[in-house]
Every structure is written in C-alpha cells, then in structure tokens.
Amino acid sequence: MTTDKDELKQKILKLKSEKNAVVFAHYYTRPEIQEIADFIGDSLALAQQATRVQANILVMCGVHFMGETMKILCPEKKVLVPDMAAGCSLADSCRAEDLADFRKQHPNHIVVSYVNTSADVKALTDVVVTSSNAKKIVDQLPKDAKIIFGPDYNLGSYINSVTGREMLLWNGACHVHSRFSLEALIQLKKEYSDAKVLAHPECKATILAQSDIIGSTKALLDYAISSPEKRFIVATESGILHEMQRACPDKEFIPVPPEITEGVGCSCNECEYMRMNTLEKVYNCLLNETPEMKVKKEIAEKAITSIQRMLEMS
Ligand code: SF4
Questions:
Q1: Atom of ligand 1 nearest to the CA of 237
Q2: Under 8 Å between Cβ of 217 and 130
Q3: 88 lines ligand 1 (CB under 6 A)
Q4: Whose CA, among 70, 90, 155, 176, lies 20 to 30 Å from 29?
C-alpha cells in the first residue's frame, strides 16, 4: 500500500532530478529524511561533500549553522534549508557579541570554536574544530598558548583532560547531550553487562567516565560497524541509531534516556531542532526554492579562514 510518506518521497526524488538538486541529511534527522538523502553524515563532512558535487541546488537537512557552514564553503551554489527556525541550543549558547566581549576580557588568547556555532562566531574564531579533530588541533597549538575554547563546556573539558591543557572554557551546552541520566546508564550497564558504552564528548564528564568509547557521531558509528561486539549502549542523539541499525542489522543498540527535569524541553533523547526537518518541508523547499541560506560576504570571508585553518591542521 502506498502511503502519504511514500508519495512525498517519490515527489522529492522527481524534483531532485528535475532541478539537479542534492539532498544532505545529518545523522540526527528523522529516518524518512535520511532515506531520501543523497548523503548522510555529520555537519562538516556534509559541507565538505557539498563542495565536491556538481549540482545547482543543495538542500541541507539539519540545523541553521549547518546550512551556514555549507553556504560558506559553497558560496556560488544555492543552499536551501527546509526550516530556517531549526536552531541549535549549543550554537545559541554563544552569541557573537558575548564572545567579542570575552575576547576583550582575555586578550592574547587563541579562540578555538566547535563547528556547532553561528557564522558570526566562526568569524571571531582563530580555528574551528569538530569533535573528531579537536584533540589533534589543540595538540598542534604552541604549548604555552592561552586558549579560549567554546561553546561546549563538556567537550572543552574532555579535550583539556586528554591534552593536559587548561583552556578557558565557554559555559555552553547541548540540551540533548548534557541531559543523559547517569543513574539510567549505570542501570543499563548492570542489565546488559556485555554491552560496550558509546558516548559523544558533548556528554557530561560523569557519563564519559562510565563509557568505553568516546568519539564523534561518525567515530561511534564506525566503531559499532567494525567491532565484534553485538550490543551497544549509546549516549548521543538517538537519530544515529537509524544508521547504526541499518549498517549493523545483527547488532543491538540501546539508547541512554535523559534525566527527567521538570519544565525542560522534551523528555526524550531527540533533538527537536533536527526533527523540525520533515518530508513536507523538504518537498516545499525544493519546489519553491526557499528558504535560501545567505551569509554576509564579510562574515563568510572571515569564517572561511577559521574553517580552512582547521582543514589544514586536521
Ligand atoms: S543535538 Fe545538540 S548540538 Fe546537535 S543540533 Fe541539536 S541542539 Fe545542537
């Protein structure tokens, strides 16, 4: 039986081909979005992939800063995002004007920013990092360098612990990764004593201390694929479970639930911003070629310098 979803998928595939468009989906988007995408990945990998495709239109299904990063790397292409309002609690925790003030208060510091930031923040940054290359890049900075790291406090704290640095940390957090329940994780470990615990470094130190493998979303996926283990407890956004299960149909993936905090967002381990991408919005944005991502030229020029520095150092 053909469902509405199937029909929409067919219409999207037809529009993609008619308009020479390519659809990119982050690992945290809904399964049906990942199913119609040409490329699935993390934010930087998708933006880099976008520079290599021959297409007139790029559709970035993710959150706002991902569309910006893609536009900065592909200024000559039309970059569409299904919902301009899909933000990111981590990127929002570091406003450019606040970072500019912080830099003034701490002169002579190198500013290292996680890729999960706005274009305005990247423009104030010396070098951008991802969760995969942060250690490698920080290791290359002069040993006596004073460093500001932002905006994710947990990732910065983890990088301090593995590099022996004492970077000054911005106090930002992702509302999904900072809320995993330690109590629930300990209980799951007791219940599934054979399982390996996979965690993203945006999680709190208490969660990381209980984990076997700490890495970026892609690193956790790669570990799950190559490991002989059959069962994994996963502490990152639950959208990745779709790709993990698709790539490893014979393995079991158990998501860690969040702490239940009254009045705070949803009580699941899903990023509601990522879930704002729907098939209907993808269809409409392809049909109408809007909303289109724009980044001011002067901001894009500064932001690309900090992104290119990362590419050279990673
Ligand atoms: S999961 Fe967290 S860091 Fe990722 S887009 Fe959502 S709010 Fe931002």
A1: 1
A2: no
A3: yes
A4: 155
pTM above 0.90, yes or no: yes
Residues in the chain: 314
Q: What is the 3-state secondary structure (H, E, C) of 185-206?
A: HHHHHHHCCCCEEEECCCCCHH
Q: In DSSP terms, which residues pair with 22 in a beta bridge?
A: 58
- Residue 63, ligand 1, Cβ within 6 A: yes
| Residue ranges of the chain whose pLDDT lies below 70 | 1-2, 261-268
* Residues β-bridged to residue 197: 233
Nearest to 310 by CA among 104, 122, 85, 42: 122
Q: How far is the CA of 90 from the centre of ligand 1 (A)?
A: 6
* Secondary element (H or E) of residue 70: helix 64-73
- Ligand 1 near 293 CB (within 6 A): no
* CB atoms inside a 10 Å sphere around CB 195: 19
Write out pLDDT tens, residues 209-251. Answer: 999 999 999 999 999 999 999 999 999 999 999 999 999 999 9
Question: How many A from CA of 130 to the centre of ligand 1?
Answer: 13
Q: At what angle do helices 64-73 and 43-52 cross, to 10 degrees?
A: 30
Q: Where does 126-230 show beta strands of DSSP type E?
A: 127-129, 146-150, 168-169, 196-199, 213-214
Q: Assess whether the C-beta atom of 237 lies below 6 angstroms from ligand 1.
A: yes
What secondary structure letter does DSSP report for 276?
A: G
With a 6 A CB cut-off, is 89 part of the ligand 1 pocket?
yes
**Quick check: CB of 66 below 6 Å from ligand 1?**
no
SS3 of the chain: helix, strand, coil, percent, to 5: 45, 15, 35
Measured in degrees and rounded to the nearest 5, phi and psi for residue 22 equal -125, 135
Ligand 1 pocket, mutate which of 26, 28, 152 (most atoms under 8 A from CB): 28
